[in-house]
Amino acid sequence: xxxxxxxxxxxxxxxxxxxxxxxxxxxxxxxxxxxxxxxxxxxxxxxxxxxxxxxxxxxxxxxxxxxxxxxxxxxxxxxxxxxxxxxxxxxxxxxxxxxxxxxxx
Length: 105
What we know:
By secondary structure, the chain is mainly beta. The protein contains no helices and 7 strands. The chain has strands at residues 2-6, 11-17, 26-31, 34-49, 52-67, 78-82, 85-91. Strands 1-2-7-6 form a 4-stranded antiparallel beta sheet, with no helix packed on it. Strands 3-4-5 form a 3-stranded antiparallel beta sheet, with no helix packed on it. A hairpin with a 4-residue loop joins strand 1 (2-6) and strand 2.
C-alpha cells in the first residue's frame, strides 16, 4: 500500500497493487471511522510444457484497514480499480474540522 497526501487539494490517496483481481474480488467497507479493504485472489493457469499438463493455482485472502480523518463521510470516499491498481481517495481534513486561529484582542 502506498499513501500519498496532496496538501494543495486536501486529499489523501491510498494505492493498492492487486494484480489479476477484478472489482468483484475486492470489498471496501467503512465502519467507525475505519476504511477496510478486503479481497480474495483465485488465479489459476493451465499450459502444456514438454508433453506435460502444467496447472498452477494461487489462492489467498487479504485485508487492510486505515483510520480515516475525523468527520469523513462515505460519500466523500472514491475508489477505482484500473490495470490491477486500486486507488482510494478521501479528504484529509474537512474545512469545518480544520483548526482555526483565534486572534487575541
